[in-house]
């Protein structure tokens, strides 16, 4: 078999996995497992964070304008999230090395997770087909999942616009925690 057919099979499989994940994730469902390296190479898992609320946000790429603004804003509000017993985790397909440079360049203080294999991106249904200038490609749909202290999805924001998003997440967290 030539590589051409292998590429087609991989793309179809990628589409199938992404579509299946989107259909299954709803508020109240158990959050899919996460086990990814952070910017220091240390494995971070949702299981280890049980008892805390988790703001799991997915973004396309380090050092791009919207992604930088989002990471800086989440960093700015990190203390407020911690006061609500919540941890903020940013996930992108960037490498650990890219995350380190991004953190240093923009003084990011939240944890960034590297999903170069796109396993978690697919589980959460945020790795999807996109179209720009008539060309189709796969990329990350900017999304945020608020996971409660029991590991269930409490709220989902799809197709996030960065402006005011962090405040919305913090307000929803406070509301759901009865604050």
Write a compact overview of the structure shown.
This protein has 179 residues and is an alpha/beta fold.
Q: Which range does the strand content fall in?
A: 25-35%
Kindly report the name of the CATH homologous superfamily: Glutaredoxin
The end-to-end distance, rounded to whole angstroms, is 60 Å
Assign the structural class, choosing from mainly alpha, mainly beta, alpha/beta, alpha+beta, or little secondary structure. Answer: alpha/beta
Secondary structure tally: strands: 9
| Contiguous helical run count | 6
For the biggest sheet, the summary is: 5 strands, mixed
What does this structure look like?
The protein has a five-stranded mixed beta sheet with strand order 5-4-3-8-9. It has one domain: Glutaredoxin (3-Layer(aba) Sandwich). With 179 residues, the protein is of the alpha/beta class. A hairpin with a 5-residue loop joins strand 8 and strand 9. It has six helices and nine strands; from the N terminus they run αβββααβαβαββββα. Helices cover 38% and strands 25% of the residues.
Q: What's the layout of helices and strands?
A:
Blueprint: H1 3-24, E1 35-37, E2 43-45, E3 53-58, H2 65-76, H3 78-83, E4 86-92, H4 96-106, E5 111-114, H5 119-123, E6 127-132, E7 135-140, E8 143-147, E9 153-157, H6 165-176
Parallel strand pairs: 3-4, 4-5
Antiparallel strand pairs: 1-2, 3-8, 6-7, 8-9
């Amino acid at each position: 078999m030539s590589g051409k057919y292998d590429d087609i099979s991989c793309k179809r499989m990628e589409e199938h996995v992404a579509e299946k994940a989107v259909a299954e994730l709803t508020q109240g469902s158990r959050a899919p497992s996460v086990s990814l390296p952070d910017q220091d190479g240390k494995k971070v898992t949702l299981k280890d964070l049980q008892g805390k609320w988790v703001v799991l946000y997915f973004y396309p790429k380090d050092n791009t304008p919207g992604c930088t603004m989002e990471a800086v804003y989440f960093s700015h509000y990190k203390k407020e999230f911690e006061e609500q017993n919540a941890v903020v985790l940013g996930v992108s397909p960037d490498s650990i090395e890219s995350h380190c440079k991004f953190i240093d360049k923009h003084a990011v203080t939240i944890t960034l997770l590297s999903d170069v294999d796109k396993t978690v991106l697919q589980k959460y249904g945020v790795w999807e087909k996109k179209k720009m200038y008539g060309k189709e490609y796969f990329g990350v749909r900017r999304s945020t999942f608020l996971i409660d202290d029991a590991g269930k999805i409490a709220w989902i924001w799809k197709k996030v616009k960065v402006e005011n998003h962090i405040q919305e997440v913090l307000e929803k967290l406070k509301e759901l925690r009865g604050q």
